[in-house]
Structures are given as C-alpha cells and as structure tokens.
Amino acid sequence: MNRRTSRKADVAPRAMMATSHPLAVQAGLDVMKSGGNAIEAAIAATAVLGVVEPMSTGIGGDLFALVWHEESGQLYALNASGPMGSGASIEKIHSQGNSQMPTDGILSVTVPGTTRGWAALLGRFGTKSLSELLEPAIGYAGDGFPVSKIVASRWRQHADRLQFDEDASKTFMPRGTTPAFGEIFLNPGLAHSLKLIANHGVDAYYEGRIADKIIAKSDELG
To answer: pTM for the whole thing?
Structure first.
C-alpha cells in the first residue's frame, strides 16, 4: 500500500532544536535558554545523544558541521573526521579477505574526531565551557535514563554484534540482554570518560587514560 507522508514546516520566535531524542532536545533548549548559542546547544545535544542513542553517535566517532554566522555573513564548514589507525593499511585489509572496507571489527574504526571538533567549534564560536555543556550527558550516563521504544528496538537489532566483544556486551548488555523499553540504563564508564574531558579538556581523550585504553584495545584486536 502506498502511504504518502510529509513533515510540516514549523516556526519559532527565537530558537528551535531538533534531534532524534527528546532528552537531547531538552539539553539543547536549556543551553539556549541560559544564553548559549546554537553551536553550544548542538554540542550539548550531541553529547546527550551519545548516551541515550549509543548505536547512533558518540565520542568515539566523527563530527561534521555547517555553521552560518549571521553577523559576519560567513558560512563555515568543519570536517572533524579521523584517518585510519597507523597500524592499518590497504594491504592488511586485503590480507584478511576483504575486497572492500569492512563495516565491523577494528579495521572499520577510525581515529575519533568528535571531541576535537567540539573544541574547534567552541574555540571559534563558543561562550560557554565544554564542562558546562557536558553536564546533561554526564548526568544521564551516571544516573541513568529510561530507554525509549525506538532506541530499545534498534539496540536489540545490534545484540549479536555486541555479544562478540566482552567489553561491548558488559557495557551495553549488563544483564545479558539489551535494555528493554522503559528500562533505566546507566553507563558509568562513559560518565567517567565525559567527566575527564569536562575537567581536563579534550586532551584527556587523546593523550590520557582514555587514549591509553583505546590503544590497548586496538592492539588486542590486531
């Protein structure tokens, strides 16, 4: 059956926030209500999304941004994506039986660019500290949040992949299964990492204990 769907345009007198999760929307709106700008709202919202939608985004990924700066009439573009790790190569990919880039496993992982992207955006356009913007995400990771119906469904779709890695299953399947709709999920490890970044800046991600653990895991997986 053919179903025609459409999204109606909406308007707001001062600002608007749109994401795939209401908790992220709330975080962004709170930033703007407290005097922050759209870039800062986006960072706060994205950090929350990394907690409440771990299958979609996170500090281990990349950041891309288009920013229109009204005062200067300038459009800015940011590509905060990282390269493959130094131990990877086309030859290594082929030697493991891959004819194209794998979508699973350590060879699909690139150097994370998100946190450096946050720092770059705040350095150019920010008025608030990264520490302040990460507070909502830290709260949801440490204190927990109720898993929404759509997120629970998508989480369940990735259960087989998560079970292949002990660390992944321990983090995202703490009771042996993926969280159900309405279940309160906590991610204390992510809360700790976000606190380190909030307290010590993005260098804590790339040069400190977080980086050491990333490298150790990467070496373990070859």
So the answer is: 0.90
